[in-house]
């Protein structure tokens, strides 16, 4: 399960969803939207639309689990449609993060499936997160596929960084199961852990047909958020107003670093003999 070939970033897999382009050369920037009520969610959404750094954001991630009524499929779908219409051309990634993976939703896997099913059938839905560790993940993926909605397969470890083999195995499993994007977030406890997630990212991006998204959370993992594309990560998460995970940094900083890396890489290629 390792990649032995040398791979350039230009050859990594890519995916375009609406106006968002997922590719390691210039990773998509995903900004979280959190709110506990419909009114608060819509107010935050409007504030994000007017934010001076909003043009740098590729995707809005609506963290459904922060919504107090996240276990009620019809109410969730109603708010989701409002957000889709409000953000217009910017894709809205719906994510119902469960408490098992660091989120706010303490719900059964059956209710999880019901909510994801309602999200998938929402008019205008483009991309939805599916926690692959849920027992109903396969059914959730099938609902997204039936509605022609892209699926982000995700897994989060808030305690440690698994081995390179385990990370790669999990990402490859997402690829085999048919997810459109494969995501894993880990918690490093040493610089060696960060090296490990970068190595696994490179190997996964070199062999999967789907783009991969990897994150090392917390202070040690800031580099993975800023320069994950160097190792093959097709997107990164950054805060426009509020952070949704440990170590998340402001959009404008991520955008500046990404542009610097992209520009210098292009200059080096153009000047190479």
Automatic annotation (TrEMBL):
InterPro entries assigned to the protein according to its UniProt record, in alphabetical order: Aldolase_TIM, DHquinase_I, Type-I_3-dehydroquinase
Specify the enzyme's EC class, one word: lyase
Identify the catalytic residues. 156 (proton donor/acceptor), 183 (schiff-base intermediate with substrate)
Name the keywords, alphabetized: Amino-acid biosynthesis, Aromatic amino acid biosynthesis, Lyase, Schiff base
UniProt pathway: Metabolic intermediate biosynthesis; chorismate biosynthesis; chorismate from D-erythrose 4-phosphate and phosphoenolpyruvate: step 3/7
Instruction: State where 3-dehydroquinate binds.
Output: 61-63, 97, 225, 244, 248
Tell me its EC number(s), please.
4.2.1.10
Q: Which domain of life is it from?
A: Bacteria
One GO molecular function term of this record is: 3-dehydroquinate dehydratase activity
**What is the purpose of this protein?**
Involved in the third step of the chorismate pathway, which leads to the biosynthesis of aromatic amino acids. Catalyzes the cis-dehydration of 3-dehydroquinate (DHQ) and introduces the first double bond of the aromatic ring to yield 3-dehydroshikimate.
Q: Which PANTHER family has this protein been placed in? A: 3-DEHYDROQUINATE DEHYDRATASE
What family does this belong to? Belongs to the type-I 3-dehydroquinase family.
Instruction: Write down what this protein is called.
Output: 3-dehydroquinate dehydratase
Gene for this protein?
A: aroD
């Amino acid at each position: 399960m390792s990649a032995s070939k040398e791979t350039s970033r230009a050859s990594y897999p890519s995916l375009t969803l609406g106006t968002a382009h997922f590719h390691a050369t210039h990773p998509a920037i995903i900004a979280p939207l959190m709110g506990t009520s419909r009114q608060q969610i819509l107010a935050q959404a409007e504030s994000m639309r007017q934010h001076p750094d909003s043009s740098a954001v590729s995707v809005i991630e609506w963290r459904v689990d922060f919504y107090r009524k996240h276990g009620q499929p019809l109410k969730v779908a109603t708010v989701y449609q409002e957000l889709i219409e409000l953000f217009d051309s910017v894709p809205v990634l719906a994510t119902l993060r469960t408490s098992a993976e660091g989120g706010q939703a303490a719900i059964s896997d059956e209710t999880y499936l019901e909510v994801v099913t309602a999200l998938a059938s929402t008019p205008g839905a483009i991309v939805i997160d599916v926690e692959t560790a849920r027992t109903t993940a396969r059914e959730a993926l099938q609902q997204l596929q039936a509605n022609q909605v892209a699926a982000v397969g995700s897994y989060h470890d808030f305690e440690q960084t698994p081995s390179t083999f385990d990370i790669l195995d999990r990402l490859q499993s997402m690829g085999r199961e048919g997810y459109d994007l494969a995501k894993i977030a880990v918690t490093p406890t040493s610089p060696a852990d960060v090296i490990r997630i970068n190595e696994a990212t490179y190997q996964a991006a070199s062999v999967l047909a789907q783009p991969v998204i990897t994150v090392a959370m917390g202070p040690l993992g800031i580099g993975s958020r800023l320069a994950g594309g160097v190792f093959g990560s097709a997107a990164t998460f950054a805060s426009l107003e509020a952070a949704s995970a440990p170590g998340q940094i402001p959009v404008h900083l991520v955008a500046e670093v990404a542009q610097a890396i992209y520009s210098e890489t292009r200059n080096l290629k153009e000047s190479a003999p």
